[in-house]
Amino acid sequence: MATDAATTQLGADLGLTRADLIEMYRLIAITRAIDERMWILNRAGKIPFVISGQGHEGAQVGLAYSLRKGHDWMVPYYRSVASLITFGMHPREIMIAQFAKGVDPSSGGRQMPGHYGVKDRNILSVSSPVTTQVLHATGIALAAKLRKTDQVAITYTGEGSSNQGDFFEALNFAGIHKLPVVFVVENNGYAISVPMSMQSSVPDIAMRGEGFGMPGVIVDGADVLDCYRTGKEAIDRARRGDGPTLIEAKVTRMTAHSSDDQQTKYRTAEDLQAGQERDPLPRFREELRQAGVLDEATEAKLLAESKVVVEDATDWAESQSDPDPATAQRHVYADAPPARMDDPFWQTERFIGDGGPTSRGGAS
Amino acid sequence: MATDAATTQLGADLGLTRADLIEMYRLIAITRAIDERMWILNRAGKIPFVISGQGHEGAQVGLAYSLRKGHDWMVPYYRSVASLITFGMHPREIMIAQFAKGVDPSSGGRQMPGHYGVKDRNILSVSSPVTTQVLHATGIALAAKLRKTDQVAITYTGEGSSNQGDFFEALNFAGIHKLPVVFVVENNGYAISVPMSMQSSVPDIAMRGEGFGMPGVIVDGADVLDCYRTGKEAIDRARRGDGPTLIEAKVTRMTAHSSDDQQTKYRTAEDLQAGQERDPLPRFREELRQAGVLDEATEAKLLAESKVVVEDATDWAESQSDPDPATAQRHVYADAPPARMDDPFWQTERFIGDGGPTSRGGAS
Amino acid sequence: MAVRTMIDSIRETLADEMRRDETIIVLGEDVGKKGGVFLATDGLYDEFGGDRVIDTPLTESMIIGASIGAAINGLRPVPEIQFADFIMPAFNQIVSEAARMRYRSNGAFSCPITIRAPYGGGVHGALYHSQSVEAFFSHVPGLKVVIPSTPHDARGLLRSSIRDEDPVLFFEHKKMYRSVRGDVPDSDYVVPLGSAKVTREGSQVTLVGYGLMAQYSLEAADILDSDGIRAEVVDVRCLRPLDTATILESVRKTGKCVVVYEDNRFGGYGAEIAAILAEEAFDYLDGPVVRVTGPDVPGVPYNHVLEDWFMPDPERIATAARRLAGY
Amino acid sequence: MAVRTMIDSIRETLADEMRRDETIIVLGEDVGKKGGVFLATDGLYDEFGGDRVIDTPLTESMIIGASIGAAINGLRPVPEIQFADFIMPAFNQIVSEAARMRYRSNGAFSCPITIRAPYGGGVHGALYHSQSVEAFFSHVPGLKVVIPSTPHDARGLLRSSIRDEDPVLFFEHKKMYRSVRGDVPDSDYVVPLGSAKVTREGSQVTLVGYGLMAQYSLEAADILDSDGIRAEVVDVRCLRPLDTATILESVRKTGKCVVVYEDNRFGGYGAEIAAILAEEAFDYLDGPVVRVTGPDVPGVPYNHVLEDWFMPDPERIATAARRLAGY
Ligand SMILES: Cc1ncc(C[n+]2csc(CCOP(=O)(O)OP(=O)(O)O)c2C)c(N)n1
Ligand SMILES: Cc1ncc(C[n+]2csc(CCOP(=O)(O)OP(=O)(O)O)c2C)c(N)n1
Ligand SMILES: [Mg+2]
Ligand SMILES: [Mg+2]
Questions:
Q1: Residues C300 and C163 occupy one common structural domain
Q2: Proportion of chain A above pLDDT 70, given as a percent
Q3: CA of D58, nearest ligand number
Q4: Interface ipTM > 0.95
Q5: What are C178-193's pLDDT values in tens digits?
Q6: What three-state secondary structure class fits B74?
Q7: Residue D56 Cα to ligand 4 middle (Å)
Q8: Which domain holds residue C248?
Q9: Is D14 part of a structural domain of the chain?
Q10: What is the rounded distance in angstroms from the CA atom of residue B292 to the CA atom of residue B311?
Q11: Does the global pTM surpass 0.95?
């Protein structure tokens, strides 16, 4: 059994306590458990679509752990479940997005699973077109700087998506104004089927930081504590007013791109095997065990807790109601019903002149 | 007076003959003379708009001089007059674009001055939205590679424009496939009124090459022979199949952005003065004089020639006719009149139901 | 003659055309080994290799911009945009460049490219995997816009599009890829761009649609038939150039018209058809031009009850036509 | 009350609003020291400094994308796109992001930004400095689209736009910047979004237009008046949401309508007005809905003879209205 000294050593230089380490492990383990449940639900026909972050969790938890919850801003992408849970999203809120029920805080059932967002926790709504959010994070950071709010914005995208023009326009503007923003690229080697070598003209996305006037840092996404160190440095730097950082976390995509994808069609067996071996979860567990942070009792407790959390989230989400179809016309504008929905033609049946259900004519 | 040896020396290491040097000087001087005439015509109210390349000519001639005319592709921007003349456009063809007359080969009077393009010389038509052409050059290079034509594409843009997403998407794709393309950024320090420091997060655009897997080379645009060397190396490299190069030529914008701009509003007197001092024309002339390449007789001959060329181009262009308005509806599609222009309503007057002149109803 | 799904018809046509003309290349996201997310390009990589079937980076502006350049220098690119929703980053290249190249150069340069993209809702794709984007492009002179509704037309129209000298947007309704089957001749036939088709004859009301809505209009005509209402159905097929004559002829006969489109109502493509009718069919219209469309909300929502609320369907078309017929 | 040009009215309103609300920032290309290429922001940099009047890099997607983010985090950005023609690189950010943010987040997030851009032809701007782009945006639920035609309305509508909680596209006809003058009250009045205006009363035919075409319609009404034809003119002012009631009311009175827009005819904004009339005014239309528009070519050509060929003008409007009045 490890000594107390060893316990204190790991992460001590980073200012992390034993409780922090266990919390980080818990976040990774719970995210993994939720994610695995999603695939089970998908295979059971209960949720039609899954997109998940298995293999990314170590990087996500490490990089986000030093953010100030409810103060800073997170601008995520569809694989960000571990980042989001670290930043304060509840497993129930994650799970209900899979079921797209009416009380789903992300979108009220309007968006596909994976498109998270919670206003009261400063988590910006995810959309599908990739990389647009990198500019939003930059704009959030601009406002933070001008309003002197002391906030940092962190945003995430995949390595394939990082080739979009929006990415570079964001880096450029953030670099010019030294905005408090952290750009994270989670490089899992593939953009759906297209390997890094066909996506990017350089082996490392981080190489591009310098050309935009900011540090470009590569971090091993399976090394949770190094991710923590890297994230903290970038966040601190941003908050100090020293400008943005580009972080590339080398991670592994342990699942297919999504439940619609068959990765065996374009990846070799060896490649898939190698990908599994870069799983951050067992590696961090082993690290914590070695350091004596995780003992059998703690592990058992965490395992039990995670089961409860996943059950609870699933049961709760599944039991919620579908949204009322009458709600579908709300929130087009702040102040008005959807354009032309309220106009008089065919008398009271104006908008439903086309034969739609009566609920379509309702107020906004 | 300079010796013959000196004459042979200058440019000899680059494989340039005395005739080459005089030709390069001639191209610069003629371009300058045309450009100066444009401003006179503008002030005389004869052409409503001028956008010119004074200060850019040294870089343009040097960089383009080793292209293969009629074989390689040039994808220019609005300041490219010297590049275009080097690549085979005739001064008359430049001048007629200012007058936008019917026989203008660039656009038949459809585009504003500065939007050049000549199909039979592999000069792609310029449009106004900046930086789109950088992707076109990349596509041209892709076709050259796949069709094995041994062609190189060269494209140009300003430093402000080089921050557009299209620029990076082009570099990335060209880098991945090692396409035979040369990307030139003519950095004149300003994008209309916005200085480099507010446009780009790095002091040199060339710094960005490395992040896209290609050399990023800075060259002094007033050093014509160094521009030639740099251009030739990049063109040769592209043709060899070794991939693209990013060249940043530091030039000076000696005029306002265009005839619509007042640069004194945003530039200091010292800045303007310093800009004038970086004029490539007197510098190259002095270089050639020192080396004995230019003697008084040659200079006088060139001056006389350039006057004749400018007079001829202006007189010719001015004397051409405006396009026939009936031509305005042509060339929307290869195979058909403009959509709906030929439809029957108000019987024969269908399209002119709105009261237009009869010519609008004509065939395509 | 063989029975084919839409997606098979498209894939086989791509392969045929690539065999016929070696200047044709296919490029886009995941079009290579994966064969496209809907398998429209499945097998092409194996047959034609990585030079002609290019997996591009995830950059739509580049896909179109490079296609324009490649077309300028002798190739005939058939880029795929993975979902029509993701064509927006390429909007500038399509609208400012491809569409205007011929005109601005006074006919010197042209862009023979065919941009393929799956569009449309009803497949739980939510806001960003369901969009109908045809109105944006069919408004633009210089572009052609095609939407087939049968495997037969998909083949004939795709051939015409690829062989056309101008840029064509070729939108494929993703809900139809595997659900619609039909006869596809083995011959080298084409369906010319700019020709609509009367897919069902009728006398009392004309239903005009395209893509999935052309099919739903046929289904609505069946429903109406059982009510004793004879509806004529016109499948637009090519949105630009539009075959106005066929639509006017039908409305001259029936005097009534329902224009159906899945896109948001306000300013959608069918508004132009209604406007043409208001201008050119005024003398023989016996009732208002009615539109059955998607509602004016910013996207097709995901949850099935919301999605159902959004999507026009045969019942709604039939209800509107019934009401109009009784006008 | 003072007489102002359009551009003065816009500039003064921007300054007033910035004084009123310190969360308003202006950003765009050359908006700082230069004061914008049309001087719409002249003086703002001096008064409010570089933090609130930001010269951005030449990257439109960034201008809008960062504005969205800034709006999310408490600012109220008023980005300028230098010419409407150059809004295309930002199309994705506007249409996929700004327009859909509120809906996709079920009302949680919003984007109160006002995107200003000069549009329109007749100023020798050629293909890329003359475009009318309103049809692209007025089709998109979630966006609002405004086009003023007088200095008075420019002020009142710009105020409403900036104070609105949703993204507004505010297009200014560049030919009107200095050529149009009018009274502008000093009071803090607003013109609500979604309200059209009858700018001239008449009984025989309705002319509907916006921007320069609203003014040309008034001039056409003068011409018609001397022929004894009384034309009513409706200035749309806000294209989305559209004040359908005012247009319908006018057409109910006159029975005839000419819809005027400068943009390409096919699929242009006025097609929606014509479609609404075809659907909702059928019972009181006494003649076809006629459109006077720009022709279907990919841009306004530069040479003055070509440009004149393109542009609708008061004479053309009057000719069409005269013919329609005699229908
Ligand atoms: C603009 C746009 N184009 C295409 C897509 C379809 N798409 C969704 S995810 C994806 C691949 C993303 O790869 P990467 O950025 O590496 O992220 P990863 O999924 O590997 O985490 C693609 C092509 C999209 N969502 N948006
Ligand atoms: C997409 C787009 N946005 C804006 C403009 C307007 N514009 C024309 S040139 C220019 C500045 C270009 O600066 P730079 O790239 O440095 O080239 P320079 O003119 O200095 O040679 C601007 C903003 C444009 N033409 N296209
Ligand atoms: Mg990836
Ligand atoms: Mg410049």
A1: no
A2: 90
A3: 2
A4: yes
A5: 999 999 999 999 999 9
A6: strand
A7: 14
A8: 197-325
A9: yes
A10: 29
A11: yes
